[in-house]
Amino acid sequence: MKKLLFLSFLAMSAISLAQEKKPTEKGKLSIYFGGGFVSSSRFAIDDKLAASALPQIQANVPEFVFGVNHFFNKGFLDMELSSNMFKKSNSATTSNGSRSNFRLRGHYNFVNNKDIVFSGGLNLAFTANDFNVYSQNNQVDVNNLAASTTSYIRLRNNMFFAGPSLGFAIKNKGEQLVRLNVGYEFALITGKWKSDFANVSNSINENGQSRLMIGAIFFFNRHTK
């Protein structure tokens, strides 16, 4: 609980700093696109998958990002959507999945001049996980669907993450051109694995999950609000 309260205080402080501005400063809105790499710690459900000789969730995946940046002299606020996908197989089964994220990033600009921006602050992220496992020997007979044999598992859960992040941006003519983001997020609120297609028994939470994120974003449509 102390950790949660501490991180919540940091989040409020970071977002307040990002929005701090002079009375005459309106800030600048920019759209950005980008991509990167996410490395997640082991999922709790991986132990259950391994015990059943099923492919586990892939920890290291590429990620695609789209967002909006509101930039001030002393800080900024990002609102972004990101997603990543994976697919793994063994001799009998295949697993695939996706993770969708909505993230707020509040940063204070430690350095902000005509050439670069160096900033730090906090990420807050909501994540929806979707995970599927199916047999490679599934048989479907369209003429006799009742006799078809299928083995398919689909699970989902929602998680809330928070953690510190750093940014290093290069400017062109005083405007942000590209920024490198590095962040490390911890799961503060986790959800049990559920299914829209079956009743799930003995479900588990993903307690202790964390992830490292490294990526680059490119800014477009830069203008003053």
Q: Mean of the pLDDT scores?
A: 86
Radius of gyration of CA atoms, rounded to a whole number: 21 Å
Give a short account of the largest sheet: 8 strands, antiparallel, barrel
Strand order of the largest sheet: 1-2-3-4-5-6-7-8
H/E element order: HEHEEEEEEE
Oligomerization status of the protein chains: single chain
Please state the structural category: mainly beta
Basic shape: elongated
Low-confidence stretches: 1-7
End-to-end C-alpha gap: 39 Å
**Treating each run of at least 4 consecutive H or I residues as one helix, how many helices?**
2
Percent helix among the residues? 10-25%
Proportion of strand residues: over 45%
Quantity of strands, as a count: 8
